[in-house]
Amino acid sequence: MGNAQSPPADPLFDTAIRAFTTQELEDLKSIFVSLAAQSGSNGKFVSQSVFQAYFRVPGLLGTKLFQLATQKRNDGMLLFEDLVVTKAIYEKGSRDEIEEFIYQLCDVTGDGILGRSDIEAVINSVNECLFYPKSDGTGLTSHQNVLKVFVNAAQFSEKVEGSSEESMSLADFRSWCSLVPSARKFLGSLLMPPDSGRPGYQVPTLHHSEDIPAEILILRKEYAWHIGGALSQDEVEDWKLLYHSGINGLSFSTFLGNLSNGDGPTVLIIKDNEGFVYGGYASQPWDRQSDFYGDMKCFLYQLYPKASIFRPTGANNNLQWCAVNFSSDSIPNGIGFGGRANHFGLFLSANFDQGHTFPCTTFNSPCLSKTSKIHPEVIECWGVIAKVPQNGKPEALKGTVLERFKEDRNMLKMVGIANSSD
């Protein structure tokens, strides 16, 4: 009789709790109790305002996240069971389940159409969380116009009957996530405790001499956040300006000289005479070589007029190029990434006055500029300041370039991105 009168079990909750350890469930319960107390609900539920304030998800994105977390009941009450079920799907689910959840999350207007206005609202939330009204570290205030480059990377391939707005399919969305991994990280960590160093929230601190005019710098905080989406947390803490053509001149020798004291990764940025901005992440030092070198941590990117990242596909190991004072036409002098000699994914000649960018299978990247032949107006290079281990010595790279390439490729296979730009 007693069992017959018991309330029916929630199968979703019963399944969800199995995704957590006992300690994780206790932590979730503690958070819920605290937020419910702030909501004035006698411990029964968390209100939307308290939910959004705690998780620091503003605007329409925060509203949609609360709606999904409350199973779309629209009663304004987040129960403990809701929190457990949502986090089980959103953080503990399969990759497909997580991306389906984020895809629904981005439909902030709730009309079933993931359109440009929805993605703009998402990017505006990024702006509110990370940049506005903070200074971008160079004396400039972040502007929403800069963030439009991330929307420009999106494709909207689905026609919607009865609507003038085209919709982003799930395939379109997954492609956008691979091109703008910082946005994917941001959207995938919104229910993590806000003070835990959430992925997608890291913005590198940009260091440069105080006598360098802020307005001449190409790299903005928003661009650094975008590039950092393809890096580890340790690599997005501090970046230092090593070379700027407006200060040091368009000089290959000066470029190499300024970088000779550092052995860490570098962020190369080019603004050409068409106004396009793009570059490459060099995971290895710029050392004189007669052939390609580097590892699978290298990648190419666009910053303007749209922002996209192109990571190695594993098609070949033609990753990084640095040739100096060679007399053979088969070994072009300059620096580059991907493709093949004389037909690179990105290349700057040793004179630093011209170069080219072609579509290449190394990174599955398109021509990065308006035309294949490029004429740089500004070249910047930033050094990634690596953390020093407790023993005081940077960790040495082990094995040959090819061995490291194979190791990196195996790691990429494990996370499912070796054969795509994701």
From TrEMBL:
SMART domains found in the cross-reference section: TLDc (SM00584)
Where does the record place the TLDc domain?
217-385
Q: Which InterPro entries match?
A: TLDc_dom (IPR006571)
Q: Name one Pfam family in it.
A: TLD
What PANTHER family has UniProt attached to this entry?
CALCIUM-BINDING EF-HAND FAMILY PROTEIN-RELATED, NUCLEOLAR PROTEIN 7/ESTROGEN RECEPTOR COACTIVATOR-RELATED
What is the protein name stated in its UniProt record? TLDc domain-containing protein
Native species: Zingiber officinale (Ginger)
